[in-house]
Design goal:
Elements lengths: L6 E10 L6 E11 L2 E6 L2 E3 L16 E4 L9
Antiparallel strand pairs: 1-2, 1-5, 2-3, 3-4
């Protein structure tokens, strides 16, 4: 059995809901080994941050932006 190196990084993602204009941030852990990445949120396995994020305020589909990305201005 071969053990591969695993690189772990914490990534801050920003989310914006176009329906209710709510914005928030969450930190995800990305564990990378070779060409594969496993995502964790609050210590549990999760989908990648950009896969179907739901707004905690209204439940609508939200947009995900990697850390450092600008969130659309609120009206």
């Amino acid at each position: 059995m071969c053990v591969k190196d695993v690189h772990t990084s914490n990534e801050r993602w920003r989310f914006h809901c176009p329906r209710c204009v709510w914005s928030w941030e969450q930190v995800f852990e990305a564990r990378q080994s070779g060409s594969h990445t496993a995502w964790y949120h609050d210590g549990l396995p999760s989908q990648p941050p950009w896969i179907d994020p739901g707004c905690p305020a209204c439940g609508a589909s939200a947009k995900a932006f990697p850390g450092g990305a600008l969130i659309p201005p609120q009206p």
